[in-house]
Amino acid sequence: MDTTTTGTTGTTGTTTQPPRPRTVTWWELPVDDLDRAQAFYGPVLGWTFSPFGDEAGDYLGVSSGGELVGAVFRAPDAPREVGVRVYVLVDDLEAVLAATVEHGGTVKVPRSEVGGDMGWWAEVLDPDGRWLGLCTDDAPSAA
């Protein structure tokens, strides 16, 4: 992972940090329809998609901020039971919740406080009914 740093003199540089052991380094999201997944996750979370590996027709790499972070793959018969729960850090939770609804998803749990000054979270379902957690450190935006 490359990290850009700015020194006290205003100079910038890029350092490479190895992945941290015992942290999530890759994820895969089964979806019913790749086009629908791109139409939902692209605008809602700003993800971009690209063909990936030998299964390019049914498997797309997902990038966030220019970094490949995971994949979506066509698996219409995949069970929807909860397994590992993944939370995506967002800057403007209300905007992401609104985009979720706008692009065919459902807000399952609206903004909720974690407690102990640890931020806020929410739960959404994508158009296929699959769960996704959202979290933020930012206070609620003014209504």
UniProtKB/TrEMBL annotation:
Top-level taxon of origin: Bacteria
Stored InterPro entries: Anthracycline_SecMetBiosynth, Glyas_Bleomycin-R_OHBP_Dase, Glyoxy/Ble-like_N, VOC_core
Q: Please name one Pfam family that this protein belongs to.
A: Ble-like_N
Q: Where is the composition biased (Low complexity)?
A: 1-16
Q: Which segments constitute the VOC domain?
A: 23-137
* Region (Disordered) location: 1-22
> Cross-referenced PANTHER family, in alphabetical order?
GLYOXALASE-RELATED (PTHR33993)
Q: What is this protein called?
A: VOC domain-containing protein
This protein's species is: Cellulomonas marina
Source lineage:
Bacteria, Bacillati, Actinomycetota, Actinomycetes, Micrococcales
